[in-house]
Structures
1.
Amino acid sequence: MTNTKGRVLYLATVYTHLAAFHLPFMQLLHGKGYEVHAAASSDQGRKKEVEAIGVRCWEIPFSRSPYSLKNWRAFRELGRLLEYYRFDLIHVHTPVASFLGRYLARATGQRPVLYTAHGFHFYQGASLRNWLLYYPAERLAARWTDGLIVMNREDYDSAIKMGFRPGENLFYVHGVGVDVDKFNSIVSSRSLRDKLGLKADDIVITCIAELIPRKNHLFLLKAWSRLTKKICSAHLLLVGDGVLRQALECWVNGKSVSRVHFLGFRRDIPQLVQEANIVVLVSRHEGLPRSLMEAMAAGKPVVASNVRGNRDLVDHGRTGFLVELGDVEGLAGYLELLARDENLRLALGRAGREKIGDYSLDKVLAEMDAVYSRYLPS
């Protein structure tokens, strides 16, 4: 640790999470002279992206499922890491890793520990099982948490009820940040439309989300099957991969739903967003979805489910529309309204771009820098 101010450990269940959301914050601390470490499970090869910015990475075989026996092995290996290294700050993320990490940090006498809740798994509308499992776990782990960072108002209120104190050990930040300039400056090249054989005036509705149950794609597809009967120039782009891809493709083929394009995992998200006319996200629950922030930064109108996180971003009727879960007719109606009215799309897009300035990466970096400064040695 020669010539460094100290050691910081980032902990998450999988490296995909760290690579997708936390590289700028690791770079922030690395640039300030801290030796940055990361510990997670390699799930999709994104560990190399974290290593590429100078972070020392450790393989800890977490499972996302709290019921998996793999987490016992992860518990032992993380314990050995914390016994060998002393960290000046441990920043934990994601439910399984954050619970085990906070317990082991306290057991090995390491602190301070920061926890970013990217969306508590207990929330308004969550299942009884979620409340019985995650709420008591978070109440217990609160005593091992020196600082809690939240990114939506519902979680902020829940944290206060758990005993966290605003400004002392509870901090609200505007998500993980979005590079507003990157999404605002790209000029559509029409390359994607050309590859898909779309016309210049076709309406492109894009959903960027992992194909997993939480993202609720079947709800979207049911609404889409109605919309295709009314607007023959609209195309639905599903960007992302996941365990439900085959089942969703079978549903589309079985119902003969037209103009649905499964694009899989992509790295050209700014270009895809710029070529869209409308962006949609109908998750069952969210923390603070970056796909909506990116769409708003690009000046696109959004349609989203009326759930925590989404409603922090979307002002109904001003920057987009919120629809209740299960309201297939309502979802199809909002998509049709936007598809038919270009002026409305432009107006909502402008308002969304204005609002998302508060969620820019520069501002979030400043917010996080202020939080880190409270806990790191000066």
2.
Amino acid sequence: EASEKICRYAFDYAKNNGRKKVTAVHKANIMKYTDGLFLEAFREVAKEYPEIEPQEVIVDNMCMQLVIRPETFDVLVAPNLYGDIVSDLCAGLVGGLGFAPSGNIGDEYRIYEAVHGSAPDIAGKGIANPSALLLAFVLMLEALGKLDDANRLKAALAVVVEEGVTITPDIGGNASTEEFTAAIIRKLG
């Protein structure tokens, strides 16, 4: 039931966001029962979405393929363990965990957060990169149908990072969290 539910969410997400392919990440060659069940659910759900290409990739190969040619993938769906591994790898491809938002989507509730957690080693120093948290807010705005606001925030963040003038130490700058955030707010104005 849980595998079917997450696969259906992935295909619905793809359909609702103009995506063309959903890739199941698994290790069914070794984990024959658990991942086999996951793939069975994926295949059954995929039949209901003929306009979306289903793809199956073993997790170790997926990690290599994401490094070599990430542009060939669109929506990924995986059991929790592989999702944790692949999401950190993908975060590395875009600049690190400081740029990785997360959404925990349930039937009744949703929690949006930065993937990286609390970063206690830099707590109180004013040097944390707030990008992941801001991007999690973007995900929430999108889910609420506030696409213009989401796009404005995403664009403002991208401009500040691309300019490279007021950025936090983790991405090569010397700005504080507050200075970085203020620069984004100015771009929103």
